[in-house]
Amino acid sequence: MYAFPALRSLPGAPLGTRYLSFPSVLPRNEDAVREVLRKYLPRSLSWTAKEKKERLNEYYQRKRPEVYSPVVDSLARFIMAFAGGASLIVPMLVMSFEPSRNKSLITVSVSVLLFAAFLSSGIHASNQETLAATATYAAVLVVFVGTSSSNH
Fold first, then answer.
1. Domain span at residue 123?
2. Is residue 58 situated within a structural domain?
3. More confident residue, 2 or 109
4. CA dihedral over 131, 133, 119, 28, signed as positive or negative
5. With a threshold of 0.70, does the pTM exceed it?
């Protein structure tokens, strides 16, 4: 695609030179949370004002936008932050009431498996990122088990 065809014909321009530009919309990194939000939120929240103005026909044809709106992006970040916090707090609460070593080990094992399943299916992360995040999550829970069992 030639973005500036008139520059090619100017005197002094090298032969066969192509002048290109970057696409006006950068490709988005799709993830499950943002896609679900875009699918179920009203169009007025999932489309940006600029894109709605530029692609009005597609907006009324109920096609999906090419960029994420600030509402979708912010809400997705909030959901991920809430889920991350809950994935640590809930197992800790379960282990802190009537603590026992078996209960703590089962809680940690189930929590780590659920965390790994969510991470591998809900988020597009590389194998190394998935492994590092799961190991870090398991380490945090194991530290809680170690400190809580030493107090009792």
1. 86-151
2. no
3. 109
4. negative
5. no
